[in-house]
Amino acid sequence: GTPVTIGAARQTASNNLIGELGYNLYDVSDATLVDPTTGKLNSSANLLVNDRWDDVLFRDNASFSSTNLNVSGGSEDVTYYFSLGTQNDNGYTIRSNFERHTARLK
Fold first, then answer.
1. Quick check: 1 pLDDT over 80?
2. What is the pLDDT of residue 85?
3. Contact in structure between 59 and 94 (CB atoms under 8 Å)
4. How many CB atoms lie within 10 A of CB 33?
5. Whole-prediction pTM
């Protein structure tokens, strides 16, 4: 193909960005969103939406707790072992909670 100059690429970005995306999420007009001389986003453009997607996916504080109780004993003829446990893990990623309860008798 024919090589494209940097200036032509910048102008193409300025002319076609919104047409390709289909919408403008900034508070400046479509025509001034991209500077045709630099090909960069207008420095005075402010995003109109909250783009903090990490707030939706991650917690600020993850927590983990584990509690166990074990009882064992016996004599020469009989031995016993009993345990109870619980685990609660509120992971760093939202909706990644894990909870487990265990019991054992032997």
1. no
2. 97
3. yes
4. 19
5. 0.46
DSSP 3-state helix, strand, coil percentages of the chain (rounded to 5)? 25, 35, 40
Q: Are 32 and 42 in contact (CB under 8 A)?
A: yes
Nearest to 61 by CA among 92, 100, 21: 92
Please, how many CA atoms are within 13 Å of residue 81, restricted to the half-sphere of its CB? 2
- In the numeric block, which tokens belong to residue 60? 């600020």
Scanning the chain, the segments in alpha helix (DSSP H) are 6-21, 53-57
As a whole number, mean pLDDT of residues 50-56 equals 79
Token pair, residue 80, equals 């016993």
Burial of residue 34, with CB atoms counted within 10 A of its CB: 0-12 exposed, 13-18 middle, 19 or more buried: buried
- C-alpha span between 63 and 45 (Å, rounded): 39
pLDDT in tens, 62-97: 899 999 999 999 999 999 999 999 999 998 888 889
